Amino acid sequence: MKGILVGIAINLIAAALLSNLAGPHFGLMSLTVGFVLLIVAFSLRRGLTIHYAGWGIGPEQYQDVTTVVKGYVRDNKIDIAVENATFQCHPYQGIPKKLFVQYSFGFGLGKKEKTKLEGDRLNLP
Questions:
Q1: Using CA atoms, how far apart are residues 124 and 50, in angstroms rounded to an integer?
Q2: Into how many domains does the chain fold?
Q3: Predicted pLDDT at 125
């Protein structure tokens, strides 16, 4: 779907640039529709984005597990157990840990944050 929209958008933009023969209104309309389709295609591309994930006991004491958490994203969703085995590490043994995640979804403005305690589940979005 995204590829089709991008292809149509590029064709419309090219037609607009070469449309001097068809008149200025056709060119402006083609250019506008082409850019709108590019914006729609770009917004379809964006889904759940994990910017940072930390596993540990608090700020400045998190182990970076961003890559591991990103690996669990399926169909722009994530549903994982918040435990040592999930993150393939065991920092601060014997102390209850938490997961801190910075994420965004779609074309949303800004990052969101979520903190989950050990033993909980992380469900996003």
A1: 10
A2: 2
A3: 83
